[in-house]
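Section 3.1: Structural characterization of target chains.
Under the original work plan, the team committed to producing a structural model for every single-chain target entering the pipeline before any wet-lab resources were allocated. The record below documents one such target. The sequence was received from the expression subgroup and is listed exactly as submitted; it comprises 347 residues.
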Amino acid sequence: MEMTTLKIGLPAGSLADPNRGGSLIALLKHAGFPTKGYDKGGPSSFTLTPFLVGWDGRPQEFGAQLALGEVDLAIGGDDWVRERSLEYEYEYGEILKLKKVLSLQRGDVRIVIIADCKVDSCDEWLKQLLSEKALVSAVSEMPYLALEWFQTKAAALGFGESHKAFSVQKYKTPPRNETGIVIYESWGKTETKVKQNSVDFGLEITQTGSAIANYGLHVVDEVMKSEAGIWANPALLTDPAKLDLARMFLLNLYGSIYAENKVLLTFNAKKSDVEKLLVYLREHRLFGDEPTMKEGVHFTEFTIKLDSTNKVLPIAKARYELAKLGATHIETIPLESSIPGLGVLDL
């Protein structure tokens, strides 16, 4: 009998780089899916789970690959999935029904409109631009996000008909339309092209906005916020075997995300100190419905979960205060995975 497999789109770039902020490799390992080759640019494979097939790719392409069924799940940003979906809609008249099934809680960026002028009102700036120019020009790595923003704004300002024509072209080929907007698709350095007044505005991906400011440019509007996540083609729902694999993959990955920055604290307490410790745990909300307690003859063992990034109650302070209340043999155990239950899944 042929083994059912699940193809996972693994993005090249910062998420795959162990020296940058994504730490996806560690996340997959903690979830029980260690990889081989992914940190070296591929080919990638899952060493312990042959029913998972790694598909190395660019997040820019995963939206289309999901729609075509080349991959079953893909790891990518909201922005690039939206960009590919808009391209299919604008250029081919097709609506992609892709679903984000898990947030990875990393890779946060903003998609913004930038211009070489300080703007008090985005609407006033754009209205003046549309009044002065029959053909507006823009540049972006995400031309269809720029196009959607432009057409939505232009229509709201009363220029929907006069500026409805569009073309997306390579930088800087002759415009194919005389009115509306021409958007040049570029491979980075959007700021330079805007700074040199080669176009009227740009759509840029930014985390801190420092590069934009360094060029003396200004953000005139925010198009969307984006983060990395797991995306699926809803067609996965029609294949019970693949769906089961997908749910297994997602549940374990959720567990490793949920465990980030959390530790288990175990300690013992004499029977006479238990009530004082329970009051402390209750006051600081260090358990849910009830604390985990293992009763012995003379001692009680406690297990609690702490957030290692909590500045209100740092772990060091909690351990000290517990010790003052009678806790002994306080052990701190890093967590690699913590799964609340199947109810966390959205697939």
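The mean pLDDT is 93.
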